[in-house]
Amino acid sequence: MVSLRLCGPENSTPASSSLRIILWGKSGSGKSATGNSILSQRVFASRLGAQAVTRTCQRATGTWNGRDILVVDTPTILEEKARNQDMDKDIGDCYLFSAPGPHVLLLVTQLGRFTAQDTMAVRSVKEVFGAGVMRHVIVLFTRKEDLGGASLDEYVTNTDNRSLWSLVRECGRRYCAFNNRGTGDEQRQQLAELMAVVESLEREHEGAFHTNALFLEAQLFLRGGGDTHGAGHRRYLAQVRSQVEKQKRDLRGTGNNWAFKGLRSVLDGSLCAVSFVCV
User: Stretch 212-227: mean pLDDT, rounded?
Assistant: First the structure.
């Protein structure tokens, strides 16, 4: 039986033995529904639509095969909310919730609909966590049912979407697919497939998780009491802003990265979203 608990930033950092997963992606990609599928229970608000349902970072815990799992659901930081003062708090909360760092970042995208917004989501994850986070990224396609029984490997291998193919290569061809409406055996099978990819990733990195200077700052803040209303929190958010700006500058300094090129190509009209048709 899966046990679940919604947590806030005031809770202590999860034990290092737990598996920490961050969900990332554009609005409407199915992040929250994917979190519910991983935890085998509806704990994150989710509904079909293009508008964002998740407005703030949230986390919940469960277990899988006796191992604790922590899942962090994120708002779509790259969109309109990212242009106001709430961005620093959203990013800061994501660091606090997943400290000392995530083992896995699930980049969630809809099957057959990898668009310019998805490319922006890839760039934003590098801006928020640093380019090194891509070593821990797994691409998770939602709407697996649209495959209609066809092979996911063939779909990925034969895609003519250059941005999607570049992403798959950059993250070491780590991907899987979910039908978030699946139940029973189907739900258990797709979760087992995801965990097999996760376990392979952990073996590759010898159990190491992604971390950086800001995760260390998040841990120090939590050890100091984690008061989200005091001067310490304001200083922490200032560090968040400074570190993310540095990571953005670092990315601009490597203008040959595929996400930058891919976004320019999309905006220039040379790319379009993949349309997958089962025959």
Answer: 94
